[in-house]
Amino acid sequence: GAAMLRSLGSFLCLWALRLPVAPAGSGAAARGLDVASYRERVRAMFYHAYEHYLESAFPYDELRPLTCDGQDTWGSFSLTLIDALDTLLILGNVSEFQRVVNVLQEGVDFDIDVNASVFETNIRVVGGLLSAHLLSKKAGVEVEAGWPCSGPLLRMAEEAARKLLPAFQTPTGMPYGTVNLLHGVNPGETPVTCTAGIGTFIVEFATLSHLTGDPVFEDVARKALKALWKNRSDIGLVGNHIDVITAKWVAQDAGIGAGVDSYFEYLVKGAILLQDKELMSMFLEYNKAIKNYTKFDDWYLWVQMYKGTVSMPVFQSLEAYWPGLQSLIGDVDNAMRTFLNYYTVWKQFGGLPEFYNIPQGYTVDKREGYPLRPELIESAMYLYRATRDPTLLELGRDAVESIEKISKVDCGFATIKDLRDHRLDNRMESFFLAETVKYLYLLFDPDNFIHNDGSVFDVVTTPYGECVLNAGGFVFNTEAHPIDPAALHCCRKRKEEQWEVEDLMREFYSLKKTKKFTLKRTSDCGEGESPKDPEDAPSEKSGEKRNSKKNSHSLLSCPSQSFNSKLAVLGQVFLDNT
Length: 578
Fold this sequence. Notes:
Layout: H1 27-31, H2 35-57, E1 62-64, E2 69-71, H3 79-90, H4 94-107, E3 115-117, H5 118-135, H6 152-164, E4 178-180, E5 192-194, H7 196-199, H8 202-212, H9 216-230, E6 241-243, E7 249-251, E8 253-254, H10 261-274, H11 277-294, E9 295-296, E10 299-300, E11 302-304, E12 310-312, E13 314-316, H12 322-328, H13 332-349, E14 355-357, E15 362-363, H14 375-387, H15 390-407, E16 408-409, E17 412-413, E18 416-418, E19 423-424, H16 431-444, E20 458-462, E21 465-469, E22 475-476, E23 482-483, H17 495-512, H18 552-557, H19 563-569
Antiparallel strand pairs: 1-2, 3-4, 5-6, 6-7, 8-11, 9-10, 11-12, 13-14, 14-15, 16-17, 18-19, 20-21, 22-23
Helix pairs in contact: 2-15, 2-16, 3-4, 3-5, 3-16, 5-6, 5-8, 6-8, 8-9, 10-11, 12-13, 12-14, 13-14, 14-15, 14-16
């Protein structure tokens, strides 16, 4: 879960509140921890918050739990409903999922004069709609004939994403942080955007491009990622905020937390989703620099991006996603050590303060709050899948106990303004239902369909042939919206259209009498999508690295290449700049 742009909320204090449970670390006690009963408590937690949102806050973005009313925060699109939709299915509630899909189709409009965060709208709205679209058949929704390559939720996701595209029209390709959904980028808009607000698009935008066949989304997301990479410092670090017009770093603090976090996360998740070696090698380079300059005793500090000198010896609650990310690249031992450091902070306060001074071992002034963030629970969920270490279930137990004890009010769950005295704030962020509750539930539900290891799956017949879905391997966006990576390979164009283009090319070459060759009719031989029309072919960028000229002979005959890769090599048929 990410977001510098999330309002820095509030804070929790459990040292005064010794929980009536076995002490942490007692493995036997944890093994005896009643996973099923905690799972049910998490379910009850979800409905307590969700039902009060519907009752008191809908159609506003968020519930205000202390006054039992609602407010618009990130736009005006019933944000909590979109964010909570896939959680409903993970909890097994298909009827409410179906009802909400209908409500959203009728009630949500993006043609509004609202200034929206490009980053938040992408991760919460586009991500939430894409995930719900891909899960809708599983949830018993009557889907269109062309699903998953078409459908009302996909059209809504695409419409929302199109509203964000004007932000990317900058000299560097790095987007503005704010866009007006009706008018585009406001004149006088600040050109300073945080790193995460530039590098957190590839998961949603590549998914959109693969499903809709429009490459523009993936293209702008890649361009933004690469611009950040190009502007890293000589010692391999990126700062916190950059000017998207001049590419000058405005905030030069380098670390893994707020303002940077999900950029690193999306290099890894983008690499997995798209099977893209380039994105992974970028991350691994950053990972080396992060270890060299920011890591001390399994803590991560903030350093000056050019010199590597420590600027803030602070742990931020948002950084708690890092052990989960390390587990995704297989670095489980380091992940576990860092996780245990962060868990000691949780045990000190009954939550993670937004900032924690590592040398002093205490909160930082004005940053004592805990807005019910998911990051530590997210890491526990990943690490539990990897290790089955019962300590991870204990963190889940502690989270349930302290959120219920400190944060629960009559109308939902309130942000904790101060972890030292348990004062509350009148806000329940949408990520509480999208992420915190979801990761807790998945930690306590080992048999959930999300954890599928590929042993069961659905075969879906699309107009483009058969494809496999729901086989597992879901990639969570940074708002915990699961994307099925197999879906990205469902929406190639029809085989007949491929044959037509091949026949055209045969004719063309027999007229020219220049070269003699045959194109093998290998229909299902690659991961890329065939282009919508021939002109699109040469700019094919669907996550596969384009092979260099010297490999062109193998491209023509190799059955593992999709048809449009062949077109890209023979691109001079359509374009002369190949």
